[in-house]
Write a sequence for this structure.
């Protein structure tokens, strides 16, 4: 990888200052997406700002009717959080399915969301629950945050601090895990919180995570797999690569949505 | 160059490294601890697994500077000073849990992390599931799984 300068701030403010002084700098969270990309020389940051010593941006807390997760919370710590497993096991299952145990020991929720890999799991959970991404500058609704593959609403120098997930009574995630990479070939997160029903899909779309309004509408009558029986989504706009065709991915969206609904209702 | 200091296998160490130096390079090239291997260099194979502050991590996907002030354990830190093998190492020997041995340090460091997270009574299904981040191209995993199950039990007995 190309060389860079390395910085270890201890506050969000210091980190923001370092980014302002290093316009080509990048934040380093768990490093399990950024470092591989730097090794391939696909990214060439002039400075790395390591967030691992920044105080106050880790941990899982129940705040009223929301679960607030610090941006630097590792996947393993979210997956094993007793409070999250109790109030919303469907969300706790998402980081438990990422990569392998060592990746889960290092990777973070904030890093995953900021990267917005089109096959990552957390974007589906954020969009599928209507989460709010809280940065050092503002609060961004998940519906506005994810803007296409590897693209988010984050501005220069903006740092994700926490992610707030409303607690949904019913929530579940199902993914077709790529056997080698562990990424979602397709992943579907479903939730029901009062009248708010969401179906969010990762891995399938050529432009990253998306919602399925036709499924959501059909589920308003009854939040059950039966309600979307026979419904399909078009293959146009689906991703195509050596792993799966657009038609296959579109098919998997329906299959996994039904499985997720069964899990959410179990 | 930047100064880095950490504890490796109980000993305080320091070094002068480029910021881009990976932890695995620092261990192998600066400290000459060559038990930690580089298999794929893409965070897939697990030959480089070490314990970073007690938790298994891939040293090929960690910068040395990220470990400033941390405590690292490598495969060289497991056996007793007199040379007696750690029960998990002994179990790999006993069950012939290796052929070429390239993946073995990572397998053993991973196995100890499985014990840390799941206790000493492990079943085959759990071991295979938890070895997701380790690749062996010789053995077909059968004896590795047996070794981990037995090594975990022997650790409790010790």
């Amino acid at each position: 990888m190309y060389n860079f300068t390395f910085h270890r701030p201890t506050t969000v403010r210091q980190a923001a200052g370092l980014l302002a002084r290093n316009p080509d700098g990048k934040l380093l969270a768990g490093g399990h997406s950024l470092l591989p990309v730097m090794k391939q020389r696909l990214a060439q940051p002039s400075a790395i700002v390591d967030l691992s010593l920044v105080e106050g941006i880790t941990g899982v807390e129940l705040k009223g009717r929301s679960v607030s997760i610090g941006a630097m919370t590792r996947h393993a710590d979210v997956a094993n959080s007793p409070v999250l497993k109790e109030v919303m096991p469907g969300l706790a299952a998402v980081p438990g399915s990422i990569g392998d145990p060592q990746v889960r020991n290092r990777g973070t929720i904030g890093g995953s969301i900021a990267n917005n890999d089109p096959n990552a799991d957390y974007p589906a959970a954020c969009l599928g629950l209507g989460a709010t991404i809280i940065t050092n500058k503002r609060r961004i609704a998940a519906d506005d945050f994810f803007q296409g593959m590897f693209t988010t609403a984050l501005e220069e120098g903006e740092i994700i601090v926490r992610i707030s997930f409303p607690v949904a009574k019913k929530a579940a995630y199902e993914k077709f895990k790529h056997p080698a990479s562990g990424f979602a070939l397709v992943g579907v997160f479903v939730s029901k919180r009062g009248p708010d029903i969401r179906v969010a899909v990762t891995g399938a779309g050529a432009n990253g995570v998306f919602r399925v309004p036709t499924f959501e509408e059909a589920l308003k009558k009854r939040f059950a797999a039966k309600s979307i029986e026979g419904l399909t989504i078009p293959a146009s706009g689906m991703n195509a690569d050596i792993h799966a065709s657009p038609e296959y991915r579109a098919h998997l969206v329906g299959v996994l949505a039904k499985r997720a609904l069964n899990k959410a209702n179990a | 160059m930047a100064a880095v200091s950490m504890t490796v296998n109980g000993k305080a160490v320091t070094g002068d490294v480029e910021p881009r130096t990976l932890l695995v390079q620092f261990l192998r090239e600066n400290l000459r601890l060559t038990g930690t291997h580089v298999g794929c260099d893409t965070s897939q194979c697990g030959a480089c697994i070490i314990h970073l502050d007690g938790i298994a991590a891939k040293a090929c996907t960690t910068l040395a500077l990220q470990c400033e002030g941390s405590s690292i354990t490598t495969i060289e830190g497991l056996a007793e000073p007199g040379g007696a093998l750690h029960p998990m190492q002994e179990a790999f020997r006993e069950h012939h849990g290796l052929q070429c041995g390239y993946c073995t340090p990572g397998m053993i460091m991973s196995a100890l992390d499985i014990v840390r997270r799941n206790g000493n009574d492990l079943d085959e299904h759990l071991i295979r599931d938890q070895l997701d981040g380790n690749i062996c191209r010789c053995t077909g995993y059968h004896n590795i799984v047996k070794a981990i199950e037995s090594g975990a039990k022997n650790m409790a007995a010790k």
User: Anything to note?
Assistant: The interface with chain A takes residues 2, 18-20, 41-44, 46, 49, 55-58, 61-63, 65-66, 68, 110, 113-114, 117, 130, 132-133 of chain B (CB under 8 Å). Helices of chain B lie at 23-30, 87-94, 104-118, 124-130, 142-157. Chain B has a mean pLDDT of 96. The first strand of chain B starts at residue 2 and ends at 8.
